[in-house]
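In this section we walk through a basic example: taking a raw amino acid sequence and producing a predicted 3D structure, encoded as C-alpha cells. The instruction is simple. Fold the sequence below.
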Amino acid sequence: MVDFEKKSVAILGAGPAGLSAGKVLADKGLDVTVFEMAGAVGGLSRTYECDGFLFDLGGHRFFTKKNHLNEFLRNLLKDELIMVNRSSKIFLRGKYFNYPPSIGNAFFGFGVFGAFRIFTSFLLERLRSPREIKTLEDHIVRDYGRALFGEFFEPYNEKIWGVPCDRISAEWVQQRIKGLSLIKSVKSALGFDRENKPVSLIDSFLYPEMGIGRISENLAEQIRHGGKVLTKRKVEKIYHEGNTVTAVGVRGPEGDIDKFEATEVLSSIPITELVRSFDPPPPPEVLEATRHLAFRDLIVVDVCFDRPEITRDTWIYVPEAHISFGRIHEPTNWSKSMSPEDKTSLVFEFWCNEGDWLWNLDDEALLKITMEDFVKLGLAPGAEKSVVGHKIVRCKKAYPMYVIGYEQPLNIIKDYLSKYENLILIGRYGTFMYNNMDHCIETGIRAAENVMGATHDVTAVYDPNEYMEEKR
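The resulting C-alpha cell sequence is shown next.
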C-alpha cells in the first residue's frame, strides 16, 4: 500500500509532460511542486502574445489514437477545443506541392519531364539490391528515389538539423514519414490497393481556440488547487545519496539556490542538463557522454499583418536553401481567435545552433532577413507592405538530434540514471525522444501512476512499428 501522505514530488519542467504528471498527482492529494525555468508554463508548447495577436512556437496540434488521452484533454479544456482541418504543403519553385509528395502532384508541379525523372529515379532505387537502412538519407532514397530526395527532403532536413542527411539516424525518419512512399502514391493515383488504403497524414486534429498553450495553462491552474507551480526557477543541483535523489537545488529570481527535499523526482528538463546538475557529480564517463548528445535550437519570428488571410494551410514547408526559414504557419488558419478581426500573422521558423551567426543576430537584423526572404519566396506579393508588428522568440534545445552514434552516449547516461529508484524521466527532453505532444503527456501520466504504485514502462508510449500520424 502506497502512503501518499509521505510522498513529496518534485517535477522539473512545466511543459505538457511535467504538468500532466503534476495534475494526476495533485488530483490524488499528493504534495507536488513543479519547477519551471521560464516566466510562464508550456515550454515549446507555449502560446505567446504580440499586440493582440496570438501565436504558437511553430504550430502544435494534439492528435492521439488513444481514447484515454482524448478524454484527458477534453475533460481538461471542455468547450475550449475546436477541430481543425489539416493542410500541409511544400512551397517549392514558386508552386505548392502536397506533403507528403505524390507522383500526381509532381506531374503538375515539375512537368512531364520532371515527373518522369522523379519516377525513373524511384524505379532505379527499387531495382537495386536491398541494403541496410542506417541513415535518414538511406530511408528516404529507398522510399522516394534519389531525385525527389534531392529536390525536397535533402535541403529541408539539412535546414532542420544543420548536418548532412547521411549523419542523421534512420530512426527519426521511420517515425516521421513511416509507411509513406512513392509507390503507395502511385497505387492510390491508379486506383489500386483499395482494400488496403495507403497510409496518409491525419486530416484533422483538436486544437484549443486560444492557442496550444491553453493546455499547459489549464494544467497549471488545476495543479495549483493543491500543489505548486513555480516559474523563474532553474534547477541547478540534484542532491543524492546511494541510489536515492534526496533534494533539488533551485535558483530563484533573486539568484539564491533553495534546497527542496523530495521523495520522488520527475524530470522533463534536457537529460544532459539533469546529469550535469548532480551533486556529487557522476563518474567522468557519464559526464563525457553528455558532450555527445546534441539538441537543435529554434528561433520563431511572428510577423503581424493588417490584412486578412494570407495562406490557406496549417503548415507550409520551405526546402530551398536560399531561403533562411524552413517552415511557415498562419495561426488564424488554426483558429480565427488567434488574431484581431480582419488581421493575421505568419510564424516563420528558423533552425539553428545556440551561438551560431543566426542565433546571435539582433531582432532587427533577424526581422530584416525574414522579410527579405519572404519577399524573395514570392508566397504573397505585396503582403510585406502591411506589416504592423512582430515578436521574436529564441528556444534553446528544441529538438533532440538523432546523429549517427547517439545511442551509445544516451545508453551510458540512462544506465547511470536508472540506479536512482525515485527518479523518472519524462517528456521529449527528459527521455531524449523526438515524440509528439500526446506522447509527452502520456509519459507524464504514466510516471505519475508509477509514483502511486504502478509499474509502467514510461517510454513505451507508441508502437515503434507504427507511424505516429497515420490514418487508414
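Looking at the output, two observations stand out. The first strand starts at residue 8 and ends at 12. The two ends are 43 Å apart (CA to CA). In the next section we compare this with other chains.
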